[in-house]
């Protein structure tokens, strides 16, 4: 079977239970979808993902509210991560055939003085905080100080990130981006090798009314080698990126990239792609699940976001054509019912659909997220992915 268009949607952080190596990450017991289902006590309604076979992925322990269906319309399974980390870059690069084998720099006690001093010198601003912090708490606790002094709020998390929060009226966006670009340029190599420098602009009059804006910008490390996106682009196919994808791959291998302001906007752009005539791969990331609910440990909001996504998914399913293939997966977990506020090492769901399918079957447990990219390449007869195993021939 060969498809003219493949749509990939990454529902960021929607894990489906502890991975076999969760113990190495202190994540035993993490279960993003399972715990959201438990929180909703049967009221988590995801009819479209249900009929694709979401709970069929784990029939012995179905997600509460999501039935195991007799005749799923999609193929279903779960994928294991082989990258050394559990951040978005590890997940997405691995999906596209480039697992991360060297750990990215991680600074649980803050960044070394040498680095902070360089940022201070470049920006002419004093740096405060410099430790792991929740991004909403950090502006609540230090935003007013920043408004009074113009100091830079630098913080990190359990991921390989250096984040700079800046009130848009105090440190103009353009200046913030310049500082982030500078920080990016000096943290590429070891000992830093920081996955992402993230600009975190916010607005508001006082600490109880600060809100972060969609002017967030991620300055990621460039992919360390060729990815399946590069391979598709080089083969003359269209590669349409929606949301954070463009940042995660630093624009490499993408023929057309659009930024989004929310999950809803991301799905609208995906649906708009489905209404376009193209040949190739449309690749979407929906980050709200992670940024707004997973890291905030908010199972109620996470469930609402899943239900809203499922609704829009229905609109997308309705317009897909027989020669379209849809692949839904995630890049890591971020269980809102788990301790801490960081990502969790989990299996990710794999749901695969085309209107041309008769009835779906299990794709089992995939050894690596790389099977996703391998399948896309296989479909377009493009070679180069040596990491994953295509499941194209299993689709009937
Ligand atoms: O707490 P906030 O600022 O949302 O940061 C979160 O966003 C970062 C990037 O996804 C994560 O590493 C996590 O720390
Ligand atoms: Mn992510
Ligand atoms: Mn995250």
Task: Give an account of the 3D structure.
The protein has 396 residues and is α/β, with parallel strands linked by helices. It folds into 2 domains: 5-103 and 222-394, Alkaline Phosphatase, subunit A; 113-220, Alpha-Beta Plaits. It is 31% helix and 19% strand. The chain has helices at residues 32-40, 47-52, 88-95, 113-123, 135-149, 173-185, 228-234, 245-248, 263-274, 288-294, 299-319, 370-379; strands at residues 5-11, 75-79, 127-132, 152-156, 161-167, 196-203, 211-212, 217-220, 238-242, 256-258, 280-286, 324-329, 348-353, 362-366. Strands 10-9-11-1-12-13-2-14 form an 8-stranded mixed beta sheet, sandwiched between helices. Helix 6 (173-185) links the parallel strand 5 (161-167) and strand 6 (196-203). Helix 1 (32-40) packs across helix 11, helix 9 (263-274) runs parallel beside helix 11 and helix 10 packs antiparallel against helix 11 (299-319). The longest helix has 21 residues, at 299-319. The model has no long low-confidence stretch (mean pLDDT 97). It binds 1-O-phosphono-alpha-D-ribofuranose and manganese (II) ion (2 copies). One manganese (II) ion binds at residues 12-13, 88, 290, 331-332. The site of 1-O-phosphono-alpha-D-ribofuranose has 10 residues, from strand 5 and strand 6.
């Amino acid at each position: 079977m060969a498809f003219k268009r493949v749509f990939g949607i990454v529902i960021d952080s929607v894990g489906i239970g502890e991975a076999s190596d969760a113990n190495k990450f202190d994540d035993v017991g993490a279960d993003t979808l399972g715990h959201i289902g438990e929180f909703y006590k049967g009221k988590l309604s995801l009819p479209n993902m249900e009929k694709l076979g979401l709970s069929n992925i784990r029939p012995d322990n179905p997600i509460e509210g999501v039935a195991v269906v007799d005749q799923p319309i999609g193929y279903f399974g779960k994928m294991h991560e082989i990258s050394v980390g559990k951040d978005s870059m590890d997940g997405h690069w691995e999906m596209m055939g480039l697992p991360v084998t060297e750990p990215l720099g991680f600074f649980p006690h803050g960044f070394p003085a040498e680095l902070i001093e360089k940022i201070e010198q470049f920006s002419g601003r004093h740096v405060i905080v410099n430790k792991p912090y929740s991004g909403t708490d950090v502006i609540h606790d230090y935003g007013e100080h920043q408004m009074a002094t113009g100091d830079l709020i630098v913080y990190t998390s359990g991921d390989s990130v250096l984040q700079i929060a800046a009130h848009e009226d105090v440190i103009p966006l353009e200046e913030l981006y310049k500082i982030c670009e500078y920080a990016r340029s000096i943290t590429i190599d070891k000992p830093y090798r920081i996955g992402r420098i993230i600009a975190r602009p916010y607005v508001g009059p006082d600490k109880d009314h600060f809100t972060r804006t969609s002017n967030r910008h991620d300055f990621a490390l460039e992919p360390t080698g060729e990815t399946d996106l590069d391979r598709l682009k080089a083969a003359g196919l269209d590669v349409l990126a929606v949301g954070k994808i463009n940042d995660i791959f630093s624009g490499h291998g993408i023929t057309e990239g659009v930024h989004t302001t929310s999950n809803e906007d991301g799905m609208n752009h995906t649906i708009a792609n489905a209404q376009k005539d193209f040949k190739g791969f449309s690749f979407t990331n929906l980050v709200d699940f992670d940024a707004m609910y997973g890291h905030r440990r908010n199972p109620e909001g996470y469930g609402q976001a899943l239900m809203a996504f499922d609704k829009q998914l229905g609109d997308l399913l309705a317009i897909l054509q027989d020669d379209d293939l849809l692949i839904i997966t995630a890049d890591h977990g971020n269980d809102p019912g788990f301790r801490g506020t960081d990502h969790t090492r989990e299996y990710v769901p794999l749901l695969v659909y085309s209107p041309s399918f008769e009835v779906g079957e299990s794709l089992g447990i995939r050894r690596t997220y790389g099977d996703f990219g391998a399948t896309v390449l296989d479909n377009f007869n493009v070679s180069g992915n040596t990491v994953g195993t295509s499941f194209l021939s299993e689709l009937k």
